[in-house]
Amino acid sequence: MVKKPPWLKKKVMFGASFRNVRDVLKTCRLNTVCEEALCPNRGECYSMGTATFLILGDRCTRSCRFCAVDHGVPLPPDSSEPAHVAEAVVSLGLRYVVITSVTRDDLPDGGSCHFSATIKAIRQRSPQTRIEVLIPDFGGLDESLAAVMEACPDVLGHNIETVPGIYPIVRPGADYGRSLALMKRAHEYNGGIVIKSGLMLGLGETALEVRRVLADLVRADCSLLTLGQYLQPDEKLLPVQRFIPPREFDRWRNIALRMGFREAVCGPFVRSSYHAEEQFESVYRDS
Predict the structure, then answer these.
(1) What is the pLDDT of residue 11?
(2) How far apart, in whole angstroms, are the C-alpha atoms of residue 211 and residue 145?
(3) Most CB within 10 Å of its CB: which of 43, 111, 124, 152?
(4) Angle 112-125/81-92 helices, nearest 10 degrees?
(5) Whether the Cβ atoms of residue 84 and residue 29 lie closer than 8 Å to each other
(6) Which H or E element spans position 243?
(7) What local confidence, expressed as pLDDT, does residue 1 receive?
(8) Gap between the Cα atoms of 276 and 279, Å rounded
(9) Cα 81 from chain centroid?
């Protein structure tokens, strides 16, 4: 792996809140993308009393070449998982929760009904909690997207991840146009649900390609954006082509806001769920 620049050094954080989050996750038998994807922000987020829940198991049916989540044949969905997520939300006192999943191409609905059940379980136990879901593309199935939208999350996230020119290398099981169409359809289903997406930088994309993706996202009615640095989580995955300095991320935020995004969080350690509550509240506090 290429040596990381100094701005990518992060202090490891532990403490009572970290241990409490870890204990709640263990008690409720839940996975997090923080753990499974080897997120560099795990210590910070746990220490702030939050985590991003990973539902539908810990094995993905796709093999994206940037992601550390295990892939292979997953177990059947756990019907008790939505209730366990809701219990964890209550135990941690979360005012805002982010829920994502592995991709489940083995399921007829792609796991959409499990997302819906999880949203409903949280609403029942903690009606004041804002809910953000980060969904896969469900293979483009319209009825699967509809099932999630009908459960009315506050934010519907779907990451475009990278520029279309390197999709075959970075995301061989995904389709750029399909992801854009999903976001556009989501907005058409319910314009009151916020649409969010994100990209990784440093995989070999050009600035012009990034600008074109941002323009496509605006046309797809995406209003919240995250831009972060790709960090190679494992030597078997794609290497970093370039480390983007913090000042360049600042420029991208200004560009994104000028292009029409309501808010853009851009920085080396930014991930989809990183400070997600603050991003939402900065724009939609009174909605």
Answers:
(1) 74
(2) 27
(3) 111
(4) 40
(5) yes
(6) none
(7) 53
(8) 5
(9) 19
Residues 6+ apart with CB under 8 A from 163: 199, 205, 206, 209, 210, 212, 213
Q: Strand (E) positions, the chain?
A: 31-32, 52-55, 96-101, 130-134, 155-157, 194-201, 224-229, 263-267
> Residue 162 carries which side chain, given as an amino acid letter?
T
Handedness of CA 98, 102, 105, 111 (dihedral sign): negative
pLDDT-flagged residues of the chain (< 70): 1-2, 12-13, 286-287
pLDDT in the model for residue 53: 95
- Decide: helix, strand or coil at residue 157: strand
Structure tokens at 187: 């907005």
Q: Which residues pair with 54 in a beta bridge?
A: 31, 100
Q: How far apart are the first and last CA of the chain?
A: 44
What is the C-alpha to C-alpha distance for residues 188 and 95, in angstroms, rounded to an integer?
27
β pairing state of 130-134 and 224-229: unpaired
Instruction: Give the tokens for residue 171.
Output: 């995301």
pLDDT of residue 222: 98
